[in-house]
């Protein structure tokens, strides 16, 4: 799967490879270049990438969002869910040793 590249005037300013990466990159860029993130939201780039990544539920939730802060709040529970899945998978892997 291709990552999402946050660009500002053709310069890459952030990269996200999954939902947690998107969340943390957006949090960081909301401080340093909020206008670039808002542009990608407004144009539907992030929602389209989420569809491409198979994250259709999240895509639909953020598709009409124009506020970076609103999208960050939407992504928070999904990041926690993702982290819980990772922890369970790591425990299973360790218990097989």
Structure description:
The chain has 97 residues and is mainly alpha-helical. The protein has one domain (4-95). The protein is built from five helices and two strands, in the order E-E-H-H-H-H-H. It has helices spanning 19-32, 34-42, 45-52, 56-62, 68-95; strands at residues 4-8, 11-16. A two-stranded antiparallel sheet has the order 1-2. Strand 1 (4-8) and strand 2 (11-16) form a beta hairpin. The model has no long low-confidence stretch (mean pLDDT 90).
The topology string of helices and strands comes to EEHHHHH
Strand order of the largest sheet: 1-2
Query: Average pLDDT, to the nearest integer?
Result: 90
How much helicity do the residues have? 55-70%
Strand content: 5-15%
Distance between the termini: 30 Å
Low-pLDDT regions:
none
Which secondary-structure class do the elements indicate?
mainly alpha
Number of strands: 2
Oligomer: single chain
Biggest pleated sheet:
2 strands, antiparallel
Count of discrete alpha- or pi-helical segments spanning 4 or more residues: 5
Question: What number of domains?
Answer: 1
Rg on CA atoms, Å = 14 Å
What global shape is seen?
globular
What are the main properties of this structure?
97 residues; mainly alpha; two-stranded antiparallel ribbon; 5 helices; 11% strand
Question: Nutshell version of this structure?
Answer:
The chain has helices at residues 19-32, 34-42, 45-52, 56-62, 68-95; strands at residues 4-8, 11-16. It has 97 residues and is mainly α.
């Amino acid at each position: 799967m291709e990552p999402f590249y946050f660009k500002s005037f053709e310069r890459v300013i952030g990269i996200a490879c999954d939902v947690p990466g998107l969340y943390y990159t957006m949090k960081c860029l909301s401080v340093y270049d909020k206008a670039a993130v808002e542009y990608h939201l407004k144009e539907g780039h992030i929602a389209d990438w989420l569809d491409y990544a198979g994250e259709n539920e999240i895509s639909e939730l953020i598709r009409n969002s124009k506020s970076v802060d609103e999208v960050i709040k939407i992504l928070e529970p999904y990041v926690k869910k993702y982290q819980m899945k990772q922890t369970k998978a790591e425990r299973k892997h360790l218990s097989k040793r």
